[in-house]
Predict the 3D structure of the following.
Amino acid sequence: MSNATFTSRAAKSLRNSQLRRNINKATTTIRGKTARVTAELPDWEALRLAGREIKRSTLAELDKHLIALEESVTRAGGTVHWARDAAEAREIVVRLTKAHNTDQVIKIKSMTTDEIELNPALEGAGIRPYETDLADMIVQMGREKPSHLLVPAIHKNRVEIRDLFRDQMGSHGEGLSDRPTDLTKAARAYLRDKFLETRVAISGANFAVAETGSVVVVESEGNGRMCLTLPDVLISIMGIEKVLPRWQDLEVFLQLLPRAATGERMNPYTSIWTGTVPGDGPREFHLVLLDNGRSKILADEVSRETLHCIRCSRCLNVCPVYERAGGHAYDSMYQGPIGAIVTPQLKGLEEAGSLPYASSLCGACHEVCPVKINIPQILVHLRGKVVESKRETALGKLSGENMAMQVASRLFNNQQALEWSLWAGRLGQKLLTRDGVMPWLPPPLSGWTLSRDFPALPEQSFRDWWKQRENGK
Amino acid sequence: MSSRDIMLATIRHAISRPAPDGLPAVPPPGDLPAYRRRLDATGPEIVDRFLERLRDYNVHVEVLDSEAAVIAAATARLAALGLDRLVIPADLPAAWRPAGVTLVEDQALDHQTLNAIPGALTGAALAIAETGSIVLDGGRHQGRRALTLLPDYHLCVVFAGQLVGLVPEAMDQLGRHPARPITFFSGPSATADIELDRVVGVHGPRTLDVLFVTGPTQPREF
């Protein structure tokens, strides 16, 4: 496990009151809107079930659907590339971009390109990537990491954003005020030049339809339409789990996603394109199918449904842990409850083993998920794996947690030993108990009381009370 | 082995294990939970819902009782906005072409030229009442995507006969030509990226006006 854990990162972000205010405002607002527009559909529950069933049956025959997608995209004039991991995906995109002798690309918000760390690879190859989603552009200009799936710059205030724009937008940033309308206007003018002059665009994909080869991007700002329409070349990168078998399946997800994500009946812009069309849009289209750990998730029967996720971020907005700790504590482009299950599975438990513990298991995420992913169950499953993998190391065997569990296991198997230890415990706890709880335990149990109290043993155990009652009869 | 073969082999191995809850791996066809595929409402109710949604989005709508009223309405609206130049798809009907403005037919105009034109006038493929969406698919009277993207103003003619109730009804119709480039727009582009303040009009046309024709409609064609 890396040295910085969720707990240590959260401890830092909890001290940032601006961040907590912003996140609280964001999550409260979006929660209200999503609740309203999901409640107004009489068939919302049926849509969720349909979404889950479509995802489940698609994953069960994923190989077949990917082959069908490859065939239909190729038939429509596109080219399909297969990338086993992030390095291979980066190599494909850099190679395709370089083939067009360009030193800049425009990008649509895409978590998949963040996941494969595409931007540093492009920069390393002498290609400058321009993020065109407003928040992503702000995060990129500030050389930071996103803090929310949908509103990645939620940790920044308007003055900070104005300073970034003044600094980096050339003439479009001169004398800029900090009013959001002025900032947005400046971004429009600055990016319009980029849209018109850049020949290669890079996007993610929300859905891709195997039977037709159609790819879908949903968005709010219109930068997506610009990138999908104006350049000569379009490269789209999608996780293999994004494929849908049939055109008809879109009718379910185009209802689920906007209502669960931003609380809109429909997002402002949805683009669906199929290969290339003469005289309309890019002349060249590449679709990169990315595994990068997804098939490993698919192989685990319990956590398989992690791959149902349509990246709506509704689970973030209802999560009490996310609302307080903020997105950066998850140290990943996938945050909140879904991040707590996606990241450890993509990056490995050694790297992100603290994330499955970033939850109180309250279940709010499962309750609202538009495709009904049982996030708490997967969290517990992953916690089990973390403990198993820790026990395999010598240090893990000697850890306080493991020793305590071993001792507890013995005690609970032996009545006399248990009674004796309870008696000893009642004697020993006297010095540590305040108001019925022990706020601090000595090592090796001190880890438990770092963030919670340990309830003191009552004066009399149930067994003792029972014995006394029997005798008194 | 190619990456493709390795990925497919890995996936096949991964899915060879059954689901733990004993559910069949693939639900039988037609077994999807019954969500609504048609809106259970009368024609006027569907129109009302659509217009209400557009007003929610602050879209300026004019309801016309016949196609013959399009020219007058468009001319007046453009004059009110002070717009004097519009790009139009080459197949835009003469019966929709407003007077008193320069109309530039799109004959493969380059992007810079399109970008310098302040507005566009087109028809639509269909519209969805439940979501207030207007859908373009590059078919009749709509032009290519850049035409309704680069100008800052879009005037769109929509017929009541093109209106459907729900998203599934729209996808059924669009599915007849899925290879066409399709754009849904539902309200103006917007962002809440700066302190969650909603700012309307980021990229694309910042103003969308709709002429909604309820009367005798042009023949439906997909």
Summary: Chain A has three domains: 1-40+308-392, 55-292, 407-472. Residues 407-472 of chain A form one domain. Chain A touches chain B through 95 residues (CB under 8 Å).
